[in-house]
Design brief:
By secondary structure, this protein is an all-alpha fold. It has 13 helices and no strands.
Length: about 300
């Protein structure tokens, strides 16, 4: 199917925008670490059930299994952990702005490690898209408190999160280059590996105690976490792997970075936010960049 990778990347951004709203509401109720671990556990269970019921072939070579597992550790455990800490220290708005460098990091790594070369039109499309996203991000009000005392550390965490996401995507692509892999199987390996690593650490740190009781006493938070897990690590991560398997990593990462654009109609109609002209202009600029990427 033509442009399957690009379309999958845009659908990924749509899923992640919905999961962002669900997780932002749930994290206030149950805490970020409990939410992070629980979403990965739920997603791995959903993926396992999907693979079993659909009878999907799970055969992978040892190197494919190794690359997908390493991708999960770097992208989902380290990358997402740095991302959440960055949210805490410098807020979501500045973190998202810094995270805009992730596609460039992905493109550079893909060039050196995979030999992927972007055309000049592709590079222009990436810059136009990310410029539009930056306009929207800078316009959004920062709803996360942050301390100036940890500002430098927060910036470092945001950069490390971007590197983690970029490296995770490139390593995952290595597995796909070796041979065909079903997206749900690849997601299951990445997320299950992340759970195996992060759950014991959270338990030993005493940050994942009485979780069942917490969710039992707050059914709404359970619903929000399940919705976010379905849209984010279950469907969104699967689509992101389909995207990188059918198009260049830098292009896929750029299209997936349009989450702030995809969130605009959601925050307008669900959270009743008033959209400014700057945000609308930024959205049109980003859409123009996306169009260049599709027409390159």
């Amino acid at each position: 199917m033509p442009l399957l990778g690009e379309l999958s990347a845009l659908l990924t951004a749509c899923c992640w925008s919905g999961s962002a709203l669900a997780f932002s509401a749930a994290t206030v109720r149950v805490g970020p670490i409990r939410l992070n671990v629980t979403r990965l556990i739920l997603a791995s269970l959903l993926l396992f059930v999907t693979v079993v019921i659909a009878g999907i072939d799970v055969h992978l070579s040892s190197s494919q299994l190794r690359n997908l597992a390493l991708s999960g550790i770097i992208g989902l455990v380290l990358g997402d952990s740095f991302l959440f800490k960055s949210y805490e220290y410098i807020g979501a708005r500045l973190t998202m702005l810094i995270a805009s460098v992730a596609p460039a990091i992905s493109a550079l790594l893909a060039y050196f490690l995979l030999g992927e070369v972007l055309s000049w039109l592709g590079v222009i499309g990436m810059f136009v898209t990310l410029f539009g996203v930056s306009i929207v991000v800078l316009e959004r009000r920062d709803s996360f408190g942050h301390s100036q005392r940890h500002f430098g550390v927060g910036i470092l965490y945001a950069l490390l999160a971007s590197v983690g996401q970029g490296v995770g995507l490139v390593i995952a692509k290595m597995a796909f280059l070796e041979g065909a892999i079903n997206g749900f199987v690849a997601s299951l390996v990445r997320i299950a590996t992340a759970v195996v690593v992060i759950l014991p650490v959270a338990k030993l740190a005493g940050r994942y105690e009485n979780t069942f009781k917490v969710y039992l006493n707050d059914r709404k938070s359970m619903g929000l976490t399940l919705l976010g897990a379905f849209l984010g690590p279950y469907l969104g991560v699967t689509l992101s792997l389909v995207a990188i398997s059918y198009t260049k990593v830098g292009i896929a990462a750029t299209l997936m970075a349009t989450v702030p654009i995809m969130m605009l109609p959601l925050v307008k109609y669900i959270q009743k936010e008033v959209l400014s002209w700057r945000a609308i202009i930024g959205a049109f600029v980003a859409v123009g960049g996306v169009a260049i990427l599709f027409l390159r």
